[in-house]
Amino acid sequence: MRYEGVVYRPPSEAGSLIIQATVGCPHNKCAFCAMYSDVKFRARSTEEIIEDLDLALETYGNTVRTVFLADGNCAALPCATLVQIGEAASDRFPQLERITMYGSAKFLVKKSQDEWRKIAAAGITRIHSGLETGDPTTLEEIHKGVTPDEAVASFRHVMGSGIELSVYLMVGIAGIERWREHAIGSAELLSLASPDFIRLRTFVPMLGTAWCERWTDGELTLLSAHEALRETRLLVERLEGPTMLLSDHISNFLDVHGRLPEDRPTMLRQIDDALERPLSAFRPPTETLIGAML
Q1: Spatial distance between the Cα atoms of 51 and 261, rounded to a whole number of angstroms
Q2: Bridge partners for 43 per DSSP
Q3: 243-278 tens-digit pLDDT
């Protein structure tokens, strides 16, 4: 396949055919992210994208079941472009089950629900959206570009069009300084939005970012395994659902997953059991991972 630069995808899309529809991220202001810091956002031509679908058909045959459109925020592409891509993929891969892409709350509301319905009808039926936190203070400081109320409205907007939504939260993004506000605010926001999936990943500072500098300057304290689990426990306690909570990322200290609200008691017991273990039973401290992973 033809890729420009480093291409990122969610862990849950590990088995998907990755088609690079855009290069970089149109927002590119998040204080914790350096993935696209040296890349100017641009959309690849529809012709190039369809050529890549043809290359994939030649390489893998017509048995592809899932496709992920990279890079960051392909939801920024025009409706007509996304429809054309979706239809082209569906034509080439008759067993295709879904096409997914990244889309932040800031960009999801830029299309009408009618446009999103057309996009869903073309086969793009799931969006991965990085929220990171529902704490208003932290959300503003990491420069996500939306308020909690705007995020709720945006998520409801796109789900109301029949598209599945997978929202990402960063455990520890607010540090020990605002861990409680982060957990409670995130639970409140996501209880109102009720996305199909909530996916946890633990914050690991990325070198060269403002949020990493915040840590090195002593203004942000990274969470230990026990502290991260207590934050997660409070989140699970407060989340109303219905939603599926997943911890499908290597950065996490514990794989906590289940359907809320029905699996809440089991998940809380799992966390409580883990809190009885020594810190040495978990992955290495987050400080040791800086510079080693994204």
Answers
A1: 45
A2: 22
A3: 999 998 999 999 999 999 999 999 999 999 999 999
Q: Of all helices (H) and strands (E), which one includes residue 284?
A: none
Domains of the chain (ranges plus CATH)? Answer: 11-289 (3.20.20.70)
Q: Which helix (H) or strand (E) holds 51?
A: helix 46-60
| 190 in Cβ contact with 239 (< 8 Å) | yes
Q: Name the helix (H) or strand (E) containing 163.
A: none
Rounded to whole angstroms, the Cα distance separating 276 from 25 reads 41
The structure tokens listed for 287 are 């400080």
Cα gap 264→239, rounded to integer Å: 9
Query: Cα 27 vs. chain centroid, distance in angstroms?
Result: 15
Which residue(s) pair with 52 in the sheet? none
Q: State residue 126 phi and psi, 5-degree precision.
A: -145, 140
Structure tokens that stand for 149 in this block: 């109320």
Q: Are 239 and 62 in contact (CB under 8 A)?
A: no
Q: What are phi and psi of 189, to 5 degrees?
A: -60, -45
pTM over 0.85: yes
